[in-house]
Amino acid sequence: MPTYVYECKSCRHQFEAVHKINEEPVKECPECKGEVMRLLFPPAIVFKGSGFHVNDYPSSGYQSPSGNGKKTESATESKTETKTETADSKV
Questions:
Q1: 15-19 long-range CB contacts below 8 Å, 24 or more apart?
Q2: Which strands form 3-8's sheet, in the order they lie side by side?
Q3: Which helix (H) or strand (E) holds 39?
Q4: Distance from C-alpha of 36 to C-alpha of 15, rounded to nearest angstrom
Q5: Which candidate, 33, 32, 42, places its Cα nearest to that of 5?
Q6: Tens-digit pLDDT profile for the chain (91 aa)?
């Protein structure tokens, strides 16, 4: 269950409440019984490694370490092309 942080509008007391998403939010301060509002915080998620949009599709200004801005071809593609070129030169 998620943890929510609330702040009282009158006494500024902050407190946490754990409840389901579909449950009714807390409406009054446990200290002064005043009206409360839920505080929002950014999520604590960090995407690292390959497989995420930011890493797989860089912006147009991105330069790869090799400097040409293109993805390097895989080893299997290189071997296939080399075999084809060798077969063509024997003919």
A1: none
A2: 14-18, 3-8, 36-39
A3: strand 36-39
A4: 10
A5: 42
A6: 889 999 999 999 999 999 998 999 999 999 999 999 999 988 777 777 666 665 556 666 656 666 554 554 444 454 555 555 555 555 5
User: Which residues does 14 contact at the CB level (< 8 Å), separation at least 6?
Assistant: 5, 6, 7, 8, 39
Would you say 3 and 19 are in contact if contact means Cβ atoms under 8 Å apart?
no
CA distances to 40, 68, 72, 82 from 12, rounded to whole Å, are 15, 56, 56, 72
CA separation for the pair 23, 36 (Å, rounded): 16
Closest among 26, 24, 21 to 2, alpha carbons compared: 21
Strand 14-18 with 36-39, pairing? unpaired
Parse the chain into domains and list their residue ranges: 3-39
Q: Whole-model pTM above 0.85?
A: no
